[in-house]
Amino acid sequence: MNEVRVLPEIVANKIAAGEVVERPASVVKELIENAIDAGATMITVQVYDDGQYISVTDNGRGMSREDARLSIHRHTTSKIYDPQDLYNIKTLGFRGEALASIASVSQMSLITRKKKDMAGVRLDLRGGELTNMRSAPHPPGTTVQVQHLFFNTPARYKFLKSPRVEMQHVKRAIILQALVHPDISFCYKGKGPVILDLSATGNPLERIRDVFGNKTWKELLSIEWLEKNFSITGFVSRPEYSRKDKKHQFLFVNSRPVVDNTLFYAVRLAYQDLIESHRHPFAVIYVHIHPELIDVNVHPNKYEIRFKEERCIFNALREAVQNRLLELQGPAKIHIPSRTEDSSFSSLPVNGKPTEKTPLFPGPYSSSVKKGDSHFMSSLSSRKDDDSFVIAGQLFFTYVLVLKEEEVLIIDQHALHEKILYYKLKTQQNASSFRSQLLVPEVFEIESGMKKVFENKLVPRLKEIGYDVEFFGGNSYIIKSYPTVLKDVDHKTLVQDYLDDMMSGKTGESTGTVERYQEKLLILSSCKKAVKKGAKLKEYELYELIREYFKAPDKYQTCPHGRPVAMKLDRQEIDKYFHRDY
Ligand code: ADP
Ligand code: MG
After folding, report:
1. Which CATH fold topology does 339-419+533-577 show?
2. pLDDT tens digit sequence for 106-160
3. Which ligand is nearest to the CA of 60?
4. 9-201 belongs to which homologous superfamily?
5. 93 C-alpha vs ligand 2 centroid, how far in Å?
6. How far apart are CA 255 and CA 305, in angstroms?
7. Which residue's alpha carbon is nearest to atom 8 within ligand 1?
8. How far is it, in rounded angstroms, from Cα 102 to Cα 30?
9. CATH classification of 432-529 is 3.50.40.10, yes or no?
10. Is the CB of 68 under 6 A from ligand 1?
11. What CA–CA distance (Å, rounded) separates 422 from 409?
C-alpha cells in the first residue's frame, strides 16, 4: 500500500475549515456573503446560545435539488469557472469552500427553493456527512442553520473567546455587510428581540445612521477622491468626535470588508494631532478599484487583499481626508482645540473643592505655541528660597528641564501632572459614593437594537460606577448625575467609552470589576485634566509642578499608565559622555 494517499474529503474539509471558520462570526459572514451573491434583498440572521445556533435566511435565487446536493462539497461553486475568472471576481465568494467547511465542523441544515420549483429541498449534515435529504417547504430563497459549531473539533472550540466577545464579532460581521449593502434589508435577532432592524435604503449615509444612531451620523463628513483606476468615497468623523479604539473604522474594497492597517493609518495620519494620539476617528471608507489591480486571493477569509498600487491609494486616502478636515478650518463652526488650550484645569477640584485659585496651577492657560517660539526662562522670580532646585526651562513645551545639585532632570509635564492629580482624586475615597447632578443633563445615543442589553445589564453597571442614566425616547438616554470626583470631564465620551469596553468584554464580569473600572476612571479623569504636551507653561506653574514632584520623587516614578515621569542625568554620566575624569 502506498504511504502517500489522497485525503478523504471529510478530512480535507475539516482542514480547510481551520482557515475559513474561525468562530461563529465567520459562519455568519460566509452565509451572508452567499445570500448576497444569490441576489437577496432581505437577509435575516438569528444567532443565540452564544453562537451555538446560527441561522441565515435569504430571499435570493435559491438552489435546485441537484445544486444543493453539490454545493456542500468542497470546490463546488457557481461563481467562477476558468482560471481567467480569478482575475475578474465580481462575487463575494468564489472558492467553493464555505459550505463544505462549515458543514464539516458543525451540524448543518440547508433548506432551499428556487422560485420555479414547487417545493424546496432540505439537507441535514453532521460533521460534513449527509444524514438526510428530503423535500421541505421554504419560500423562494435559502436558509442555512448551523448548530453546535466545533462539536467535533474540541481544540478549536477551546479557542473561542468569551460568549460576549464572540457575539460582538457576530454583530460586527453583520454590520460590515449592512454598511456596504444599504440596498439590502437586514434583520438580526437573538432568541428574543430584534437587535438590528435595517430596512433597505439606497443611501449609505442613511444606513450608517440606522446602525450607529443620530449622534454619530451628525458628526460625519463625506469624503471623495477620483482617480483613473480607483475611487474613494466615505465618511469620517469631525475631529471632536473621536473614539478610544479602532473598532469604529470600516474599510471596503469593491464592496468587500477588508482589514488593512496601512490604509487605516492613512486616515489617522490625516488627523495628525487634531485628535489626541491615543484616540481614533470614526471612519467608513469605500474603495472601488479595477479588479485587476487587487488580489483578493491572499487569505481564504478574504479580509486581507493585496493592492498593486497601495502607495497611490494610501496617499489619495490621506489627502481626501486631510482636505476635508482643512475645509473645516475656514470660517466653519468646528472647534479644533489648540494644542495648548485646556481651560479645565483652572478649576481643578484639587482637595475636593473646585477653587478659582488652586494650589497647583492657578490661572487660565491660553497662550499659544508658534513655530520657532523657544521658551527658555531667564528670570527665576518664581523660585522660592527653600526650593532645592532650579528650573532651566521648558523643552519643546513638553518637558521641564530641572537642575538639582549634581543632577539634571528632564520631566514629562503631562505624565507628572497626571500622577499628581491621580493621587489627589484617589484620596477622595470611594469615587462613586458622591454624586453630583448635571445642571443640564447630557443626552447620548446607543446603537439601535441594544436597548434591552443596555437597560438590563449596562445601566446598573453605570450606576455602580456612579452614573445615573435614564431613558429619553428612541435610542436616546440622558445622564442625570455623575460621580462627583469626575468633575470637568466629558461625561458623554466617558460613558460611551465605558460602554464600548463593556460590550467588547474588556470590563466584563470575567475580566474586570467595578473597582477596577473606578480606578480606570480616576486615571482617565487625571489624564484628561492634566496639562498636555505642547502646552506653554508659566514660570510659576512650572515651579508648582516641580515642587510637588520633589515632595515625593519615589511616588512619581511613572504616570498612572506606567510611562516614566523623569529622566535623570547625573554629573558622572555627563562627565563620562565628554570623556572627562570625574
Ligand atoms: P462559494 O460561495 O465560494 O461559491 P460556498 O461553499 O459558499 O462557495 O457555496 C457553494 C455554492 O452554493 C455557491 O457557489 C452557490 O452556487 C451555492 N449557494 C450557497 N449559498 C447559497 C444561497 N444562500 N443561495 C443560493 N445559492 C447558494
Ligand atoms: Mg460562499
Report:
1. formyl-coa transferase, domain 3 (3.30.1540)
2. 999 999 999 999 999 999 999 999 999 999 999 999 999 999 999 998 888 888 9
3. 1
4. Histidine kinase-like ATPase, C-terminal domain (3.30.565.10)
5. 4
6. 12
7. 96
8. 9
9. no
10. no
11. 22
